[in-house]
Amino acid sequence: MSRFAVFALILALGACSSPPEEAASLEELEAAAGPVAGPTPVLPGDIAKLQVEQSPAVGPVVADRQHYTLYFNAQDSTNPPKSTCVEPECTLVWPPLLAAGGNIEAPGLDKALLGTVKRPDGLEQVTIAGHPVYRYVDDEKAGDTVGHGVDDRWYAIAPNGAKATR
């Protein structure tokens, strides 16, 4: 179960509890649910670090600095790059990978494939071959590829910017 679903369940159960003085505070609920996914915070001078990893399930994929698989949404535009995942309902499940000032470090990737696109909130999202890239909240550990094929539109991204395949 995703952390978002756990948080929603805890929140719903808290609303059904007896007297309000016994209800958990919002901070306690958030702590119990663990961190909720959202866009990666970006500080001035931050550099998005990408690397090529080998996934037993789907072959070579691009991963972030924490070795989590990156994904693209087949419904996003690539020319020009544009994300369709901009509402909280989407970004809480598929947090965009951000890069301050377009700073991207990516050994093993063709630099010509790398870029950024400005999101509606003004933040810069990393693109690979024009595809805005995201993490998936249900990937519980580095190397997971649980998001590959979700809704027939989310796919792990290969180092050449295409859908990862074996």
Automatic annotation (TrEMBL):
Keyword field: Signal
Keyword Phosphoprotein: no
Protein's name in the database: Lipoprotein with Yx(FWY)xxD motif
A GO BP annotation: alkane catabolic process
Endpoints of the signal sequence: 1-23
Lineage top rank: taxon: Bacteria
A Pfam family annotated for this UniProt entry: Lipoprotein_15
